[in-house]
Design a protein that fits this description.
Blueprint (H helix, E strand, L loop, with lengths): L1 H13 L9 H9 L4 E6 L4 E6 L9 E3 L17 H16 L6 E3 L4 H15 L2 H4 L17 E3 L5 H10 L6 E4 L2 E6 L20
Antiparallel strand pairs: 1-2, 1-3, 4-5, 5-7, 6-7
Bound molecules: zinc ion.
Length: 204
């Protein structure tokens, strides 16, 4: 609908017409052009841009954000999922314009690193059950899938608070009540984040 409205206004201004002067047959043509928006991080301008799907993200200039929740694939990655990274970069650039700093303090972790953190948490919390509220083993955590970001864990918490309030526009959601720093791509850019889970032990 957004792009249809833009097209109507664009056509009207092109021909020097007000929107209500568009002939019925022209409206008919505009209404038949249906397309969905595509979200991209435009590198030169450092901005989130929304393009029609028949244009798509511009190769060499845009990084796509993806248009759905992002889930585990088949192959284990060795870095942050590129769609998730583009979402973060878009949010980081938008926050920066407001003077708010966002940083990824922990993103991708190897399965070995994740299991080390889990074993350490068992020692700290005295039981696996309690440890899993804070650190999941590598087969359950989304950090080794490059799909989880710990934001501003060692920096100003207000950045993560901003991301919690505004992340859905970029497809990033806070996940747990007990972890203000942990974000995942649980919705489409411009979508709605699901309700918070009490803690990580509630996953799966
Ligand atoms: Zn995390």
């Amino acid at each position: 609908m957004f792009f249809m409205a833009v097209l109507v206004m664009g056509a009207a201004s092109l021909f020097g017409l007000a929107a209500d002067e568009i002939k019925p047959e022209e409206k008919q043509i505009v209404q038949e052009i249906k397309f969905t928006p595509v979200h991209c991080f435009n590198t030169p301008t450092q901005k989130l841009v929304i393009r029609p799907d028949f244009v798509g993200c511009v190769i060499g200039e845009d990084q796509p954000l993806g248009e759905t929740e992002i889930v585990e694939g088949t192959d284990r990655p060795e870095e942050i999922n590129p769609l998730v990274l583009a979402r973060f970069l878009s949010a980081q650039a938008a926050a920066k314009e407001l003077g708010i700093e966002l940083s990824i303090d922990s993103g991708y972790r190897s399965p070995e690193k994740q299991n080390y953190l889990y074993q350490r948490a068992i020692k700290t919390y005295k039981s696996a059950e309690e440890a899993m509220k804070w650190v999941l083993p590598s087969d359950l955590s989304r950090h080794p899938w490059g799909l989880a970001l710990d934001v501003n864990l060692n920096h100003d918490k207000s950045g993560a608070t901003w991301l919690e309030a505004n992340g859905a526009a970029f497809g990033l959601c806070r996940v747990y009540v007990n972890e203000w720093w942990h974000f995942e791509p649980l919705t489409a850019p411009g979508g709605i984040c699901p309700p918070l889970l009490p803690d990580a032990s509630q996953v799966k």
